Model the fold of this input.
Amino acid sequence: MIKIRGSEISDRESIRRIVAFVDANKEGWSVPWYGVPVPTTTVEFYDGKTFKGSFGIGKNFFEMQRDGGFWSKDAKSDEVGRFLDVVGKLKESPHR
Done:
C-alpha cells in the first residue's frame, strides 16, 4: 500500500507506476551538509501496516527515507513534473 496526502492507494497499476519512477532514480543520493530538505509532496510505502520508507519532492529536489536514514538529490523541473504527473493520475483513479 502507498499513502499520498493521507489517501491510501492499493491499486496495483498505480503502485507499479510510482515504484517504477522511484526505481529509475536510484543514483546520486547524499546528505547535504545543511541537512535533508523537507519535501512538499511525499509518497509513503507500506508492507501491510509496516512503514517501509518514503519518497518526496520539492521545487528542485527529491528526498527519500528508508531504514531510519534520510537522503536527497537535485532534480530538474521536468523530473519533478514527471513525478507530479504520476501522482496526479492517482487522483483520477477509481481504485484509490
The chain has a mean pLDDT of 87. The chain has one domain: 2-92.
